[in-house]
Amino acid sequence: MLAEVSRVQVGDAEAAVLPLITRYSGFKWPPDSVGSREDWIDKDEYDYEKGLASDYKYDFEVSPFGLIPSDLRWGQHPIIQAIRTIVDKTPVQLRAVLGMRDWGLEAGLAIRDSRVQSVSGMVLVEGRSRWLGPEWKLANAMPERRLSGKVFVVESAALTMANGGVLIQNTFTPRASDEEVQVSRKFNAACLTSLRACDGFCDFAPDILEYLKQHPDAAGNIIPLKCP
């Protein structure tokens, strides 16, 4: 799914991506509201983000056992519900030993004027001590005015999962280099299926950390990690 999403480009016609959305049972959402201009202290920031607002967006997801709540048809199967119950009742520490690990993939396409405005992909996986998630987003412009002069930026955010977690967010525009695009989308898929869970991003997404080490100007609010 992520490989197919990666082939979508900003500016593609909505009609061209509808088969992909249908194949993965995508669902249509209204755009995130930026609210009223009067409620913003920084009016220029409001004007910038208002100018980037999409008409609507499509989201679609894949998980091994219907673990993502929106995956209702698969998640309601009796066998899957039984597996879900066993996973939920098994302590986190024991699940790690047994290789019982939650994970999911998410993708999104924002549409404006019947054209793709942005494309995103995210991997979420339960690590040894917390959830981990690298996310990438290709957009026609950076999401905040302070970043508008950049073509590639790496930031971080907290994940509101049961035992907490952290997200590495890679945002880039069509003017980003091939290397930047590649390191943004690369992750260690073994973290999803290996018996021993990954401990952190040094295991899960080492390429982006190595890139930040060599290009510190690409860092936004993230503090680059030092891997062994």
Structure in a nutshell:
The protein has 228 residues and is α+β, with helices and mostly antiparallel strands. Helices cover 32% and strands 25% of the residues. The chain has one domain.
Secondary structure blueprint with pairings:
Elements: H1 2-6, H2 14-23, E1 27-29, H3 43-51, E2 56-62, H4 72-75, H5 78-89, H6 92-98, E3 103-112, E4 115-126, E5 131-139, E6 152-158, E7 165-172, H7 178-185, H8 190-193, H9 201-204, H10 206-214
Parallel strand pairs: 5-7
Antiparallel strand pairs: 1-2, 2-3, 3-4, 4-5, 6-7
Please characterize this protein's 3D structure.
The chain has helices at residues 2-6, 14-23, 43-51, 72-75, 78-89, 92-98, 178-185, 190-193, 201-204, 206-214; strands spanning 27-29, 56-62, 103-112, 115-126, 131-139, 152-158, 165-172. It is an alpha+beta fold and 228 residues long. The chain has one domain. It has a seven-stranded mixed β-sheet with strand order 1-2-3-4-5-7-6. The two termini are 32 Å apart. Residues 67-75 have low confidence and may be disordered.
